[in-house]
Amino acid sequence: MRIVTGVIFSIIALLCLFMGGLPILGFLLVVIFLGSVEYVKILRTKGFHPSLSLILLTDLAFAILIFFRRFDLLPSIISLAIMASFLMVLFMGRQPYIVNVATTVLGFLYCGWLPCHLLLIRQISADRINAFQIGTNEGLWLVIFVFLIVVATDIGGYYFGSKFGKHKLSPVISPKKTVEGALGATIMALIVASFGVFYTKLTLLHALVAGLLITISSQLGDLSESLVKRDAGVKDSSNILPGHGGILDRTDGYLFALPVAYYYFVNFACGHNIIIEFFKYIQGAINVYFG
């Protein structure tokens, strides 16, 4: 059943990804909705009460604004959502107040903002980044690049961990994960990443560096979700996906991998170096200040 569920989920995701537009937006919104519901349900087992309605509303705003490329409005939405978190807790009147505010903010960032980087990567094209001389489908292949590395990470971690695993990676948070499994996952991911030069415009160096960052962030994403579940005393985020658990269980690695991949692509791999730009900004500020 686990294999069947995984195949069906992957086919739906790939179809939506290749079609782009409204299908990928719809798929993302479903994932965000289910993930947010699972997140709130987990925290309620701890006696916390984040606002599900505010989380969902903010997540919807993130996805819609990014889909229509209204990036200028994102800071406003984040600011308003943070202020609204305090107001919602104030009117709900449920303790612990500070924790409820914090978990609400964490909810719309973790369940909404992070997965929305799928849209940001999907939109990467020559019309957005002039230095990246590519066609409008480059974003599609970059998303596939990320997906394949995360899958390779999962497979490598499982195989090497089960076959050679002896040293626990994080005994308290995730007892089944081993150092050998993490190293095997990284090796597998780098091998898969090296093939990215054949279907993306990434150089071998950028493909390997991106692959390393993606596999590390994917493993950290997995551990982070395990930390939340362990603290709440639950095994799976839900049972909506037979054999896999919940949406968060299936996407935890992607939640960290997608943002890391996106910022690496646009700041380093696409001909624009954020570090150089930062020093140029400092130099310009010094010139203005000292005349």
TrEMBL record:
Location of this chain's protein in the cell: Cell membrane
GO cellular component annotations of the record: plasma membrane
Keywords tagged on the record: Cell membrane, Lipid biosynthesis, Lipid metabolism, Membrane, Nucleotidyltransferase, Phospholipid biosynthesis, Phospholipid metabolism, Transferase, Transmembrane, Transmembrane helix
One Gene Ontology biological process: CDP-diacylglycerol biosynthetic process
GO terms for MF: phosphatidate cytidylyltransferase activity
Listed InterPro entries: PC_trans
Transmembrane regions listed in the UniProt entry: 6-35, 47-67, 73-91, 98-120, 140-160, 181-198, 204-221
Keyword NAD applies: no
Class of enzymatic activity (EC top level): transferase
Taxonomy of the source species: Bacteria, Candidatus Galligastranaerophilus
Record keyword Transferase present: yes
Protein family: Belongs to the CDS family.
Pfam families: CTP_transf_1 (PF01148)
Alphabetical list of PANTHER family matching this protein: PHOSPHATIDATE CYTIDYLYLTRANSFERASE
Pathway: Lipid metabolism; Phospholipid metabolism; CDP-diacylglycerol biosynthesis; CDP-diacylglycerol from sn-glycerol 3-phosphate: step 3/3
Catalytic activity: a 1,2-diacyl-sn-glycero-3-phosphate + CTP + H(+) = a CDP-1,2-diacyl-sn-glycerol + diphosphate
Bilayer topology: Multi-pass membrane protein
EC number: 2.7.7.41
Name of the featured protein: Phosphatidate cytidylyltransferase
